[in-house]
Specification:
Elements: H1 5-39, H2 43-54, H3 56-70, H4 73-90, H5 96-124, H6 130-155, H7 159-165, H8 169-179, H9 184-188, H10 196-200, H11 203-237, H12 242-270, H13 273-290, H14 294-323, H15 329-358, H16 360-377
Helix pairs in contact: 1-4, 1-5, 1-6, 1-8, 1-11, 2-5, 2-11, 2-15, 3-4, 3-5, 3-15, 4-5, 4-7, 4-8, 5-6, 5-14, 5-15, 6-12, 6-14, 11-13, 11-14, 11-15, 11-16, 12-14, 13-14, 13-16, 15-16
């Protein structure tokens, strides 16, 4: 990509924020079997934990409205400090309830940083390279996850150490505040006093908000439980040890990293809608395949799931930002996170009810129908490829 100096600084420092986010946000998923063993938690308690965490995205919404009103830079830095403090405290949690409460706070800041950083990068990127810019941001988040994946086998089952290490973000947040440029598009835009949510409810935007929220919720009905519980499924149902699980995650991460770049390249050439629909369908099918076909299918399905889902990330990142005005763009990103939280809670509670009788794998398989339904809702959204961003 050809970027000017400010665009490079934006991508560098927003990228650092999402590296820290990727590291901190992946610790719970990777270490969940060890956490369950330490706290003697059955699957039902783990699904309740996931439901509590999903609700953290609700807190991201008011924070994102502040980013639309007062700027992107400060909220990203505050968010990094917030989730880093919560992560450090998570390493000291004396019970599963305390861990849930601390992770709730962390998810609030993580969801806000993810949405605001995406909005900022899309606003700064050249129109023909927005998808590639988001793919780089996604790749950096994946690098943060990779640090977790590579570190945990060396210290397993000491899950607390990774949470404590996440506190390093507190030291880096001031540098992000000082070095990350404020978005030029946000500075140029006429941000009027009033609620960004009220702006999104105007006729020009509310249908887009409703469709995207519905799709995101239906997508999360499947991916919320699948993403949280796949290590539990691997260890308790397939009886895999932490080492092969980590190897699978590493392989999936490398495939996913390449897919981020491929997705960004393709969406800048083929548009947003068709790739989003196709990749959503492929993600739903490969995810359900992972939980219903034994060890071989679990390995193959996870790699494909990672590939399709990663390729879709820059597509949705660019598309969402292009659909909404500057004065409510970060809020629109957070609205999607809230919808995803609702979908995750529904999916996790459904798994908690179905798993005792149907089994964990089949319970998750049934949720794939929700994501398939959500994919077809995307036909209702306009194509926005390389169009001017709404003011």
């Amino acid at each position: 990509m050809e970027l000017d100096p400010q665009q490079r600084r934006t991508l560098t420092w927003a990228g650092l924020a999402v590296v820290l986010l990727g590291f901190d946000g992946s610790v719970l998923v990777l270490t969940l079997p060890a956490i369950a063993a330490d706290f003697h938690a059955p699957t039902r308690e783990l699904t309740n934990l996931g439901s509590v965490l999903a609700l953290g995205a609700l807190g991201a919404l008011p924070l994102a409205t502040l980013a639309d009103r007062f700027g992107r830079r400060g909220l990203i830095a505050v968010g990094v400090a917030g989730f880093s403090i919560a992560n450090f405290a998570s390493g000291l949690a004396p019970s599963l309830e305390w861990l849930a409460a601390l992770r709730l706070v962390a998810v609030c800041f993580e969801a806000m940083v993810a949405g605001v950083a995406t909005a900022l990068v899309v606003e700064e990127a050249p129109p023909g390279q927005r998808g590639q810019a988001v793919s780089v941001l996604s790749l950096l988040a994946g690098a943060g996850t990779g640090i977790t994946v590579l570190s945990y086998p060396l210290i397993a089952p000491h899950w607390r150490w990774l949470f404590l290490a996440g506190g390093v973000g507190v030291l880096l947040a001031p540098a992000i505040w000082c070095r990350l440029p404020e978005g030029r598009m946000w500075l140029r835009a006429s941000i009027v006093s009033g609620s960004a949510l009220r702006l999104l409810l105007q006729p020009a935007w509310r249908r887009r908000v409703a469709v995207l929220a519905a799709m995101t919720a239906l997508r999360a009905v499947l991916l919320g439980p699948a993403g949280l519980l796949f290590t539990v499924y691997a260890s308790e149902v397939l009886h895999l040890s932490p080492t092969p699980i980590s190897v699978l995650i590493v392989v999936s991460a490398f495939v996913g990293a390449a897919s981020y770049l491929v997705g960004g390249y393709l969406t800048d050439r083929l548009g947003r809608r068709a790739p989003a629909i196709g990749l959503s369908i492929a993600t739903a099918l490969s995810t359900t395949f992972s939980f219903t076909t034994g060890i071989t299918g679990f390995y193959a399905g996870n790699v494909l799931w990672s590939s399709f889902s990663s390729a879709a990330t820059p597509v949705f990142g660019a598309w969402t930002a292009e659909l909404f005005p500057t004065g409510a763009r970060a809020t629109a990103e957070a609205t999607g996170s809230v919808a995803g939280a609702v979908g995750s809670v529904v999916g996790l509670q459904a798994v908690g009810v179905l798993a005792p009788s149907a089994g964990l794998g089949q319970a998750i398989e049934l949720l794939g129908l929700a994501m398939l339904a959500g994919a077809f809702l995307l036909f209702m959204l306009p194509e926005t490829k390389q169009g001017p961003l709404p003011d």
